[in-house]
DNA sequence: AAACAGTCCAACCGCCTACCA
DNA sequence: TTGGTAGGCGGTTGGACTGTT
């Protein structure tokens, strides 16, 4: 019988999103919240399929997103989590507030993978690569597990070890980290951060959605790419009672 | 200055799973 | 129980950008 396509391909726009489309999507979601994605394009006046809208929102427009390169600590965390979880990017992303699975996946494929290979670590198994120049030149240890951890440590050191480089301290970088009694986000003990993230089920369920536009104050957590939204909020284009339903 | 190669990342595709009637 | 639907996920692609020759 075959699966129906997620959207009618005819009359559906594809490719990069325009600022106008972004505005429409954000306006709709701020007003109505996230409802049935399939209905979103119609209701928001977009010639996109619902899937495309969802992707655009979750990967780019969500206000709680951090932008920019992953910090060393985040990168190390991704490596640790990948060793445990494999290519379950969404699970890994869930442990990195403000990061998307797509972002992490891209970063893994373009940066981390190469670094690991360079260091003689198999990016799939996280075991030392056998008979590679890198492996032999980077480490002479005979114990396999020791080699693995040595290489990992070296990665950290080479990239400015996460033990020494503090987490970003500016507010925009930290804005989406949950409040905690312990100073997890201070960057003083990334080890603690890693442990805590591994154990805790973080609640990153779009807390911003619970706030109204009228109480959004100070810098929003996303960067200049969506600066226009600041104007949008400033001009009161969305009603204050509409986002928390 | 132009051509080419390499890199990056937003967006798409197709499959899987959960949910509901 | 079954079939249809929607949302979510991971893999892949393609175009823009950057660096090199």
TrEMBL record:
Listed InterPro entries: Homeodomain-like_sf, Myb_dom, Myb_TF_plants, SANT/Myb
Chain ranges of the Myb-like domain = 9-61, 62-112
Q: Please give the chief subcellular localization of this protein.
A: nucleus
An MF annotation (GO) of this entry: transcription cis-regulatory region binding
A GO BP entry is: carboxylic acid biosynthetic process
Q: Which UniProt keywords apply?
A: DNA-binding, Nucleus, Repeat, Transcription, Transcription regulation
Q: Does the keyword Transcription regulation apply?
A: yes
GO annotations of cellular component type:
nucleus
- Mark out the compositionally biased spans (Polar residues): 133-143, 169-184
- A family per Pfam: Myb_DNA-binding
Q: Taxonomically, which superkingdom?
A: Eukaryota
Compositional bias (Basic and acidic residues) at which positions? 144-165
Q: Where in the cell is it found?
A: Nucleus
Query: Segment Disordered: which positions?
Result: 131-184
Using the record's annotation, list all stretches that form the HTH myb-type domain: 9-61, 62-116
PANTHER family assigned to the protein according to its UniProt record, in alphabetical order: F14D16.11-RELATED
The protein's name: Uncharacterized protein
Q: Which organism is it from?
A: Paspalum notatum var. saurae
């Amino acid at each position: 019988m075959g699966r129906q396509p997620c959207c009618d391909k005819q009359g559906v726009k594809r490719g990069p999103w325009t600022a106008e489309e972004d505005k429409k999507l954000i306006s709709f979601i701020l007003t109505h919240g996230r409802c049935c994605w399939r209905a979103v394009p119609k209701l928001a006046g977009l010639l996109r399929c619902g899937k495309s809208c969802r992707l655009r929102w979750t990967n780019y427009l969500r206000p709680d997103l951090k932008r920019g390169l992953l910090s060393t600590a985040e990168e190390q965390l991704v490596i640790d989590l990948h060793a445990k979880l494999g290519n379950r990017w969404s699970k890994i992303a869930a442990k990195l507030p403000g990061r998307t699975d797509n972002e992490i996946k891209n970063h893994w494929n373009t940066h981390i993978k190469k670094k690991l290979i360079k260091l003689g670590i198999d990016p799939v198994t996280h075991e030392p690569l056998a008979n590679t120049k890198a492996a032999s030149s980077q480490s002479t240890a005979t114990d396999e597990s020791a080699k693995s951890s040595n290489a990992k440590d070296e990665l950290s050191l080479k990239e400015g070890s996460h033990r020494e480089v503090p987490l970003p301290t500016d507010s925009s970088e930290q804005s989406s980290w949950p409040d905690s009694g312990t100073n997890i986000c201070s960057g003083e003990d990334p080890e603690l951060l890693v442990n805590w993230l591994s154990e805790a089920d973080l609640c990153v369920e779009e807390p911003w959605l619970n706030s109204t536009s009228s109480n959004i104050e100070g810098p929003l957590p996303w960067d200049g790419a969506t600066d226009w939204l600041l104007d949008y909020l400033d001009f009161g284009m969305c009603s204050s009672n509409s986002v928390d339903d």
